[in-house]
Amino acid sequence: MTTGFSSGSCRFADYFVICGLDTESGLEPDELSGENFEQSPLRRTFKSKVLAHYPENVEWNPFDQDAVGMLCMPKGLSFRTQVDSREPQFHSFIITREDGSRTYGFAFTFFEEVTSKQICSAMQTLYHMHNAEQYDILHTPTSPQGLEDQRHSLPRQHSQHPTLHASPAISRLQRFNSYDISRDTLYVSKCICLITPMAFAQACRKVLQQLHQAVTSPQPPPLPLESYIYNILYEVPLPPSGRSLKFSGVYGPVVCQRPSTAELPLFDFALSEMFDLLGVENVLQLFTCALLEIQILLYSQHYQRLMTVAESITALMFPFQWQHVYVPILPASLLHFLDAPVPYLMGLHSNGQDDRTKLELPQEANLCFVDIDNHFIELPEDLPQFPNKLEFIQEISEVLMSFGVSPEGYLHSSDSQAKYRGFRSVDVASDKRNGNLASPLNSYLLRENETIARLQALVKRTGVSLDKVRDSACDNNVRVQCDEEELRMHQLNIQVREVFANRFTQMFADYEVFVIQPSQDKESWFSNRDQMQNFDKASFLSDQPEPYLPFLSRFLETQMFASFIDSKILCHDDEEKEHTLRVFDARVDKIRMLNVRTPTLRTSMYQKCTNIEEAEKAIEMRVSKIDHTALHPHLLDMKIGQGRYEQGFFPRLQSDVLSTGPTSNKWAKRSAPAQWRRKDRQKQHAEHLYLDNDQREKYIQEARNLGTTIRQPKLSNLSPSVIAQTNWKFVEGLLKECRNKTKRMLVEKMGREAVELGHGEVSITGVEENTLIASLCDLLERIWSHGLQVKQGKSALWSHLLHYQESKEKKDATPGGLGPPGERKSDGGSAMPPLKVSLIQDMRHIQNISEIKTDVGKARAWVRLSMEKKLLSRHLKQLLSDHELTKKLYKRYAFLRCDDEKEQFLYHLLSFNAVDYFCFTNVFTTIMIPYHVLVVSSKKLGGSMFTANPWVCVSGELAETGVLQVPRNTLEITFECQNLGKLTTVQMGHDNTGLYAKWLVECVMVRNEITGHTYKFPCGRWLGKGVDDGSLERILVGELMTPSTENDDRMCRTPPMQQSPGMMRRFVTISPNKLNTGQIQEGVGEAINGIVKHFHKPEKERGSLTLLLCGEYGLVWALEQVFQHGFKSPRLFKNVFIWDFLEKSQVYFESAEQREVTLDENWQTRVRHFCRFMRAINNTSRNIGKDGKFQMLVCLGARDHLLHHWIALLADCPITAQMYEDIALIKDHSLVNSLIRVLQTLQEFNITLEASLVKGVGI
Q1: Which neighbouring-strand residues pair with 50?
Q2: Do 1027 and 882 share a structural domain?
């Protein structure tokens, strides 16, 4: 899969390269590749050189000597003697230029005898020196490890050939002295390589193998080597789109074919190999990590495996493309690149000796580590599941099994692997036809491996019958021109790729609807690209099935998704679309036609891939009928004597004949009119090019680079200045990413609060907020691991915090928390000072949470807590103010030591203080949290004489505490209980004991001792028999107080939540400001409006319904105003409450029923309901007063949608006539009717009441 592509080339290969030992410059140790000198000399690595490359240069793909040299032999030269295995190795590599375009390389490495006497004696000398150094080891006993040191084979498994097994008789000295010039033959590695514009891996492998074979076989090849190399460089074209091409190698034909523009892009690596190495489950996890742009490190001792896995994973992402650093083979000299604080996909070569634990990786908080050789993968924490994962795995497994590939990855013992492979499932099918029902697969392989047993079960379950299993040869009697293995590879590849591509076409079938087309012209759209949202994420997510959200909400935030949508915006018609987009859109249209009935209805129904067969047919057609055949190799115009060579040695070729191509042949002539050539090329490479509109090329390239300052490391010999420059780019990139992230989070959050104020539409959901915070945590981890001196633990941020904690605790030997008093500015009205600001204390809170086990988890929890407390910027500033510590932990170039950038970064984080996050409280719902409760009683009226025993019960969105006794003398308690969530109500009361059981309470304050959130529950009323409304308990509704301590460094205030109830209801008689009917109607309207809005929000974002019902200006208050309007003032000193009026009405209704006044049925049912509720509330065991009872009645009436009926009843009740003035609202029919209509709007909502509101009422 290429993103860009060296557009000038229409030749199959651009360069032929030879790398190896330069005898002129001798043995140069390769310090960069990090091999140590304790190794015996044969084990060390030495510098390799590019010995020759042909032609000298081509304009469209300048030769990059450093990169090619590094990647052909990433570990440098290796030496062997005759006792070692010397198997040739093939690997491919990729060179990505800074603009993102790619060139592929295919390298074949083999061993040649060293003929240079100087080199042999240099090796002997190195051994003498080495043995002298090792001499003292001889006298220290070590366990004999056999000849481990003497087998310096590249891949481990080849060294299993019988070697001299060290008998104890061989002295240790001899074992070290494993090269003796007189006795041993020395071999050195050499590499031949093709550099090509497109990745035809199978074809290149064949060409190189045949060239190598020509050199090693006893008979010389039919023509000189130059002829074949000239042919591949100058006479073999790239196959055109949708065509196949045949050309000649040294010993046999080579076939390659290229997909048409309507098919999936070219991909020529064997996917089956990746599934073999990792198994379907692991591949899918790795795939998920790649889609979410998590850092990925592949680890293997085989270069080809690194390349195969990297290319396979990125190919399966179609139609998306990996946008970040992509280095499938990381040369040893570039190891510092693992420090890169950006998403990357890199492959690291293991020497096969060290295990994973020895690997020092700079950051692992967000790393996916894939140990390919051991079938093992380490994932970052909280990786979301890929949608429909199980059905997806099953569908892939069915395809693999039909080709005889085990979905579990390979059966670990290599011999059973070979048997399983050699044993074709087709034989099983034919065996069944012969009547031997016990198929050999069952009997023999089940004994062999339990994996197969699981497969068998899967086969039974999925109903793939093994008779259907195919073998391309007997499948159809078409003569195929390429070998069978290769056709099987293409068939398996296309089937698996179609299954993967189908997931995205299903998932994003209606993505176009959500693309936000820019309103302005392209130029200005482009210059504001950073600020623009190009996709309506919220609407798209709201259509998705719930289980998809954790994955999708993170995926929509990635660079690859943004780039995909950008390219969609930048092209208007099909002509302009780049290849992947055109193919994808065509598939989406097809799906849309199939689902005509409900085009946009997304279901989580799993739909399998349906277009496998046609995709396969296209390939079979191409390989059965070859479209083009290239010129055959022929004798070149060489001088006599040229082109001879010694058997077993790859010769220096004749550069004069190879340096230039033929002057005339039918397709080299294309240099004719430039314009025509350009058109032609566009057609030919349409699938790999961004088309030729230069302007657009620039846009896309820049759009690509927006989120990533650095796409690719430059593979060159790195001077300190280059490294410094690279690191500087990283620092700038991190700062830019921080700016964009904070902005994005604020816009989301502000967007939501703006909605609460009535502006705009609501967008963010709980899932999305979590996604954004998780990605902020990931950014912080990347910043903290940039330029670390020594890595400790998996989380760089947490390890820095621990160092800080340790140094602080040494300095302050004062007992914890009793240091100098913190910033206790007392908050006027509340008698509860805010918590002391302490970074260490916040860390301790996190350390005390037993549920959080890992360092990464602790760091994330600490970030969430700091965000909720609005202290993130301040804490990090304090952490970084310990310059000594920062110097000790970080290298000079680290982000955290670039002062200006660090300041700007902290400033960006400061902007989070403008909004309220509950990202700690809402996520850690099961942890234990200490709360502090303080009851503030009125100073005025003899509070000190109070004799009864008070109690409280605190309720929150997640739980409630139950009754807690409060000591009478202090009136405060601290208790610990499971996280209550945001607090909503406090029930409080007393037991009415003692002489003076009357108590006037101002308010109750409750503080969460971890987050510091303080809630105030105003009361302002008496509790006691015979005073106020005779209540012994009250339900108080509260709200979060905004701390006034930091107003100076606040950037802007968020709107306060619903105001807390002043509850100065007092008695009807002293209602200070009588409202007029207009104001009362408005009050009811507002209260109802609040409730309606509440239900129109997505569930995750609704605030407290209790506040809307019982809070200040809530529904209870509004109806209270209705009933108080025009209430007749009673005689002096006697208080009358609304409840008294309701009780009288109840008595009237009950007597009316007994008198059997004949009224319609409706009236009777309403009366029955009303009386039933009144009785239930009056009979409750709770000591709530008359106003409390009224509140309970309104809440129950709202819950059961009865309020409007009751209002109608009461308006017509004779009692009303007695107790209300004529001007009263309740007597005005038109006003009552409009009131009833307003209350009816509550009927469509399902109102659930908090338990504390209706405790003790059994209705």
Answers
A1: 19
A2: no
Peptide bond into 815 cis (omega under 30): no
Per-residue pLDDT tens over the stretch 1118-1159: 998 999 888 887 665 567 788 988 998 999 888 877 776 666
Q: How many CA atoms lie within 13 A of 1035 on its CB side?
A: 26
Closest CA to 652 of 185, 11, 20, 14: 20
Which range has the worst mean pLDDT, 728-732, 884-888, 963-967, 1170-1174?
A: 728-732
* Angle at 254 (CA atoms; ends 250, 257), nearest 5 degrees: 160
List, in sequence order, the alpha helices (H) in 1051-1137: 1077-1096, 1105-1110, 1115-1124
- Residue 1191 near residue 1116 (C-beta atoms within 8 A): yes
CA distances from 76 to 21, 113, 354 (A): 9, 17, 19
Residue labelled with tokens 């080809």: 304
pLDDT > 70 in the chain, percent: 74
Q: Could you give the CA distance from residue 1092 to residue 1086 in angstroms, rounded to a whole number?
A: 10
Task: Tokens for 773, please give them.
Answer: 């915070």
Do 1002 and 1111 belong to one domain? no
Provide the terminal-to-terminal Cα distance of the chain, rounded to the nearest Å: 67
* Burial class, 143, CB count within 10 angstroms (exposed 0-12 / middle 13-18 / buried 19+): exposed
Closest C-alpha to 1000, from 943, 915, 934: 943
CB atoms within 10 A of CB 605: 9
239: preceding bond cis by omega (within 30 degrees): no
H-state helical runs in 279-322 = 280-291, 303-316
pLDDT band at 721; cut points 50, 70, 90: low
Residue written as tokens 């709980």?
Answer: 766
Q: Is 812 helix (H, G, I), strand (E, B) or coil?
A: coil
- Does 1139 fall in a domain? yes
Instruction: Please enumerate in sequence order all residues whose Cβ is within 8 A of that of 492, keeping only pairs 6 or more positions apart, or say none.
Output: 270, 271, 272, 399, 400, 403, 405
**Helices 1115-1124, 1138-1154: crossing angle, 10 deg rounding:** 80
Residue 208: half-sphere exposure toward Cβ, Cα within 13 Å = 29
701 found inside a domain: no
Contacts of 873 (CB under 8 A, 6+ apart): 906, 907, 909, 910, 912, 913
Give me the domain span that covers residue 371: 271-403
Alpha-carbon distance values, 591 to 503, 586, 943 (Å): 12, 9, 75
Q: At 510, which amino acid appears? A: D
984 with 1090, same domain? no
550, 579, 597 - which closes a domain = 597
Spatial separation of the C-alpha atoms in residues 231 and 99, rounded to whole Å: 31
Measured at the CA of 248, the angle between CA 245 and CA 252, to 5 degrees, comes to 115
Q: Is residue 881 part of a domain?
A: yes
- 897 and 939 housed in the same domain: no
Beta-carbon contacts of residue 665 (< 8 Å; ≥ 6 apart): 235, 631
- Give the type of residue at 800: H
Question: Radius of gyration over alpha carbons of the chain, in Å?
Answer: 39
Same domain, 240 and 299: no
List the alpha helices (DSSP H) in 1131-1180: 1138-1154, 1161-1178
Q: Which DSSP state fits 644? A: -
Token pair, residue 309, equals 């896995």
CA 57 to chain CA mean position, Å: 42
| Same-domain check for residues 931 and 902 | no
When divided into structural domains, the chain yields a total of 6
Instruction: Tell me: do 76 and 191 sit in the same domain.
Output: yes
CA 927 to chain centre: 25
Query: Which token pair is 781?
Result: 């981890």
How far is residue 342's CA from residue 347's CA, in Å, rounded to a whole number?
A: 15
pLDDT of residue 409: 78
Q: Do 186 and 81 meet the contact criterion of CB atoms below 8 Å apart?
A: yes
Check if the beta carbon of residue 247 is closer than 8 Å to that of residue 254.
yes
pTM of the model: 0.72
- What length does the chain have? 1259
Spatial distance between the Cα atoms of 1172 and 1196, rounded to a whole number of angstroms: 12
